């Protein structure tokens, strides 16, 4: 029997890998025997100032309380305790700046930096429970700012530094942040792009409507000129840098709010997903340990996400640091100064665990294998993927080219809302199938069900359904900031009678019972692993004076997973100037939301397909955008609109 090694149906770990792996088959058995005792054992990976009395209180469902009565300091767990345990000299962060500068920060140094920042934030009058917005590129101070907030019980809200001033303002206002921490500018492909300026634009926006911000703390990164408001604005190097490096951490309740992170929903307004302390850190640490098979003091770990997304929170800051990882943090883009950058970094630091997104893997494929082939990647031993379903072709390329044909690949499914990985192969246990997230982790319970909540039947070719989480988990969201109703409506209403969490994803079970995530079933697009709602982009488009109506769909895209395709109707007085208008509209969306939301295509059309009740039929527009034959048009008011749309698109 010959077998094409590139086209196996599944890839079992080598005996050698399995023998040394953190997770064995017994993990699932333990969790199945007593789920709550299992989670208690995972919580014991952390240092608790005071132990909990109950593992879980679900009586207030859907708001869970995990490790009831327990008290801990999250930053102490991520930093100080490693120093106390004698690992102060271990490098926590190998930081690599985009222009080529770099910095190694040990755990002892990180403790001092976090303590200084905590002392200074205290001096500013911030108190536990206050909100701090962090709008920063990938520099060590961003991680320090996050940890200092956690140390003081301040709730941080990290806003991706690629977001526009209006997106920042919306988030600052929603959470009533008292402080914004930012930088003068950020490096982007060799150029210093202003960031402090964007903060000012945000804070003076809306006709200078009052906001909650008392101070803006600014790290100097690029040296560019910045607008300055005396009294309000403060330089980090003149304040934090001179503060006392000793700070006594205080313990907080396990349910103390740790952070808010905004994510797109099906309406134009982003949701502030709320996470708390003990359960979140427990699951972030647990998953980082087992899913990546991380060995503290031996591995060099690199997660390529940005701290502006949940992956950066859980798998750059909290999980790895709680587990005493030595990790690479890289500031810039993968092709600066050229496409070799990631592989040079892997070589330079001997990266052994690498965690990235399918969209980047597909980009690497496009650049060609001669690029990674020019480097010694033999230090890599585990590869991870997150953010969208990874197509089997990209999976195989990842394993063959980056993983020398032998590293396990973990395809990790989770969400901002779940806080940590939920469904993933375990690298020393699972025979991995390209394209499948496969199995809920030990301690996690998921099902694939139909509309009514009946489990799909295994082995049926059409075993497709909705992904639900039918048991609470420690790092689950505790709410939507300031909007309890939206929290219940979005996640808990669909299967309210069963008390299940609805993830918004479609999924399939194959005849072996392995789970394949198929993507969103709501009006949320996934572009390069970023969640963007159709409504948000539509609202940015109709914000332009020339646009009367807009409909946006996510169409399949070879590199980015989905690409944004917009259909717009112009106002009567607007002249269609062709490309000029389209470019202007694209720029408007970049300005309003972020360049990541810039539509791939915009089509000016005379009419949009609507049902009799006035609902835009996005499914049909998706057919058009992807060049397919039209599906069912029988509920349309005017089926002939498609002739015109097609004509305009061609
Ligand atoms: C999608 C990112 C398939 C999914 C951590 C989910 C995935 C959304 C995977 C959450 C995966 C994430 N396979 N789909 N391995 N990982 N997704 O909140 O649609 O930015 O609902 O969290 O990304 O995106 P979010």
Radius of gyration: 24 Å
- Portion of residues in beta strands equals 15-25%
- Alpha-carbon distance between the termini? 50 Å
Shape: globular
**How many individual β-strands?**
30
- State the low-pLDDT regions, or none: none
CATH superfamily of the domain at 48-288: ANL, N-terminal domain
Bound molecules: 5'-O-[(S)-ethoxy(hydroxy)phosphoryl]adenosine
- What's the CATH first level of the domain at 48-288? Alpha Beta
| CATH structural architecture of the domain at 48-288 | 3-Layer(aba) Sandwich
- Which topology of the domain at 48-288 does CATH recognise? Rossmann fold
- Going by helix content, strand content and strand pairing, the class is alpha/beta
Helix content: 25-40%
Question: Can you put this structure into words, describing what you see?
Answer:
31% of the residues lie in helices and 23% in strands. With 650 residues, it is α/β, with parallel strands linked by helices. Among the domains are: 48-288, ANL, N-terminal domain (Rossmann fold, 3-Layer(aba) Sandwich), CATH 3.40.50; 446-520, Luciferase, Domain 3 (Luciferase, domain 3); 526-649, ANL, C-terminal domain (GMP Synthetase, Chain A, domain 3, 2-Layer Sandwich). The N and C termini lie far apart (50 Å). The mean pLDDT is 93. It binds 5'-O-[(S)-ethoxy(hydroxy)phosphoryl]adenosine. This is Acetyl-coenzyme A synthetase. It comes from Nocardia jiangsuensis. CoA binds at residues 188-191, 311, 335, 528.
